[in-house]
Specification:
Layout: H1 10-23, H2 25-33, H3 46-59, H4 70-85, H5 94-112
Length: 113
Amino acid sequence: MWGDNPWDNDSASDWFADLMQRTHLPDQVRETLLLCEQEDDGGENTALLRAAVYCVLQFCRVYIWPIEHLDSDLDLAIKATHKILSDESYCYSEKITAQIQAELKELELRRKT
């Protein structure tokens, strides 16, 4: 072990790499995050974007996510989160807006490090 996180050891790191490769989760998440670059006046993609951002928050870390896409997928998740925050019908309460803003801060902090 080289740290306290569940992915901070050789066995877990290998397990996560295998999981990501077998499930193609990073590819599916990236494909969904790219919806933030499309026009979506009805907000139909907002819930999908939020689900994809959740996956990024949970899994887009060194030793879990494919390193060659880590930074670009974090950038996409940040962009998607801004799009989510701009959807007033999705962000219908102060509570949900505050939660999404906290998620955005986490993504931005992770991107800086």
